Every structure is written in C-alpha cells, then in structure tokens.
Amino acid sequence: MGDLDGRTFLITGANTGIGLETARALAGRGARLFLAVRSEERGRQAIEEIATQTGNRNLELLSLDLGDLDSVRRCAETFLATGAPLHVLINNAGLAGAHGMTASGFEIAFGTNHVGPFLLTALLLDRLRLSAPARIVNVASVAHYNASGIDWNAVRRRTRSFTGMREYSVSKLANVLHAQELGRRLDGTGVTACALHPGTIASDIWRRVPWPLRPLMTRRMKSPREGARTSVYCATAPELAGETGGYYVDCRPQAPAASATLTLAGELWRRSSEWTAAGG
Ligand SMILES: NC(=O)c1ccc[n+]([C@@H]2O[C@H](COP(=O)([O-])OP(=O)(O)OC[C@H]3O[C@@H](n4cnc5c(N)ncnc54)[C@H](OP(=O)(O)O)[C@@H]3O)[C@@H](O)[C@H]2O)c1
Predict the structure, then answer these.
(1) For residue 66, which atom of ligand 1 is closest to its CA?
(2) Is the Cβ–Cβ distance between 2 and 30 less than 8 Å?
(3) Interval 175-198: pLDDT, tens
C-alpha cells in the first residue's frame, strides 16, 4: 500500500533508463502500472526486477513499437480492452543519434519521439478524460532549445545530419509543442499535460556513441534514478493539479524555447492528426 494505491499509469519505454526508474519509483508507491515496451523479453525482465524489489505485482506488459503506427494502435486497443482507468500517461520512450526512417515513413527521431506518441495519446484521450483528474507527461529535452522550428519536408525523409542531433532537437521541440496544445485543447476536462527535461542522464540513450567516447561522456552524468525525479514529480505532485501546458526542469517550471509558439503548436497538431488519421 502506498499513496498511489488505486492510480493507474502507462509508461512507454519502461524497460531501461529513465522509464525503468520512473516505473520503479511509482511501483514503490503502490501504483498500478502498464509498461509499454518494444521488446517483450526486456519488458518481462523489468517487471520481474521491479516486482521483486517493491513487492508490487500490479504490473502489466504492453507491446509497443512507436515507429510503427499499427503497433501503436494495437497497443492502445490492448490497453483499452482491459477496461482499466488511466490516470497518468507518461510518454517517455525515445531515441537519439539514430539515422533512417520509421516503418510508418517519418524521419526516425521525429517518427519515434513525436508521431507515435501523438497517436498513442490521441487513442487514449477518452480513457484519460473518463479517469480525470488525469495527466499526460511528455519527456522532452533541453535539446528542444536548439530547434528554431520544424521543417515539414525534413520530417518525412531520412535523417540527414551527421550526429542525428538536429533531428532529435526537432522531435523534442515537438514534445513540448504537443504538451502545450494538449493543455489548451483539454482545458476544463480535468486532464492536464506537461513536458519536461529529465537532466543529462547516463542511460542507454547514448548507445550509438562509439566506445571509448561513451564511457568518457557518461561518467559525469546523473544516474537514471535522478533522471526519473522530474517525471515522477510531474506525474504525481499534488501542487500540479490544475497546472497545464508547462515545461519543467529539476521539478520546477521553466520557460520553453521561443520557437515553441502557439501557431507552431497548432500547425503541428493539425499535421500530426492528418498523418495519423487521429482526428482532433
Ligand atoms: N538521457 C538523457 O540525458 C536525456 C536527456 C533529455 C531527454 N531524455 C529523454 O528521456 C527519455 C528516456 O530516455 P533514456 O535516457 O531513458 O534512454 P534509454 O535508456 O535509451 O531508454 C529509451 C527507451 O525508449 C524505448 N524506445 C526506443 N525506441 C522505441 C520505439 N520505437 N518503440 C518503443 N520504445 C522505444 C527504448 O526501448 P529499447 O530498450 O527496446 O531500445 C527504451 O526503453 C527519452 O524521451 C529521451 O529523449 C533523455
């Protein structure tokens, strides 16, 4: 029993890094958790580890590949069929430094980090509304400050920058814009939304950085456990009830990039709805 007893959370990418630590922290407080992951094996290992450590057996696995919109639809259907309420959706899963396109035809960072989560959120919105008070938490990044806007052609073709970081920054700007627009559209429904930067964290996100650069880079970074703090805060802090559309760093609100404008958020919403046929 804990203070989150009776509350249901769905966390994407909960098998490793910040997502795993977020799941562990919430499970330790008695929450019911759905872990949406792309590898069933790694997901089961995470569940076993969390259950053993916290004693919480209210943990369920959902299969999800955010780069494949059919997989996103199946994941949402499977969750909705359980009949469970949804109090908090944490759009945590993401990748950086990859090159290519998703199965659904988007630049790989944009498709995985924004388009998939946009559709998942849209498909779960009615359940969130029914479960209100409810929250949507987008794990964005300070990297969004590096994006001055969104090139609508670039998000439909292969990654072009050498490091992939230009495309990653755009995808994280999209996470911030998505939370802002959700905040406006869900005003008065009891469902709030926010975006956050977890800190610079020594997680698997650096998996594409070649050795020996990787250990040198990650040595001074914070742990995934520290990285989960702001996610857990945004997902559970009572003082955030009624707060919506904000961007948080170190459990405090912070102004997002100047490029996160109302107009761009509206345009991203319109295009994302068209791409995913999610309505809205
Ligand atoms: N680490 C940092 O310094 C940092 C800084 C700012 C923001 N962030 C953000 O924090 C979030 C969590 O990242 P992390 O640092 O914890 O990285 P991580 O350790 O690499 O974890 C990322 C998670 O996302 C999952 N994922 C990747 N592609 C997916 C897909 N197509 N479908 C479903 N799941 C997918 C991964 O699954 P697999 O294990 O199967 O690959 C993994 O569970 C990301 O959104 C990232 O952008 C991280």
Answers:
(1) 32
(2) yes
(3) 999 999 999 999 999 999 999 999
